[in-house]
Amino acid sequence: MTEGRGPSERVPRFVPMRGFGAGGAGRAFRPSRGLPAAVAALALLAVGGLTAVHVVSALLGLPVRLVPYEQWARWASTAAWNDGRTLAVASALALIGLALILIALVPGRGRMIALRTGDPDLVVGLPRRALARALSARANEVDGVRAAGARMRGWHADVSVRTDLRDTTALGERVRAAVEDELARLAPAHHVSLNLRVRGPS
Fold first, then answer.
1. Contacts for 155 with CB less than 8 Å, ≥ 6 apart
2. Which segments cross the bilayer (predicted)?
3. Which of 10, 82, 126, 142 has the smallest number of Cβ neighbours within 10 A?
4. Domain membership flag for residue 10
């Protein structure tokens, strides 16, 4: 269920999740991989459709030659397994199959980050841009920071700070403590590592 109106970056999503501690949040906000699934489905549909057309037309005595089936069949029946072309075709098919398996197994990067709440059965989804803005705003509140920006890269938060102070080490420690405190307050379900860069006066 969504709360409020407006652009998706500003609207958190609230998902009731029984068994949140068992990793339900990660499954709830995992992207669906819709585009690779659609491409694979269309490819299988095309191959199945061509096969059906060839089989039915051959049974009716009016074979349709949309693909050079006889030529491919002759080549397949005479080609040796150690032939270079055979190995190339087999390698290409193996790579395609491996890519499909990896796409299915490896989760993509979702647009929403799951946050823990006080209710163990409730997960809050925060857009990545909103989390980056929250970290940037918290860094800007630190004394001595002239400007700060943040960007999410996967499960890494890149925070850059500009200052007019010469002692960038001490400022960096204060900024890191403030940003980590903000992360602890928001409580992402997945650990977010922090990469901080502090630039002093030129």
1. 190, 191, 192, 193
2. 37-66, 86-106
3. 82
4. no
The average pLDDT across 173-191 equals 91
Q: pTM for the whole thing?
A: 0.56
Looking at the fold, whether 69 and 123 belong to one and the same domain comes out as no
Residue tagged 């929250």 (tokens): 134
The secondary structure of residue 144, as a DSSP letter, is T
In a domain, 189, yes or no: yes
Residues 88 and 137 in one domain: no
Q: Which domain covers residue 167, as residue numbers?
A: 112-199
The kind and range of the H/E element at 41 are helix 34-59
Domains: count for the chain: 2
Q: How far is CA 110 from CA 79, 131, 176, 190, 195, in A?
A: 46, 13, 25, 12, 20
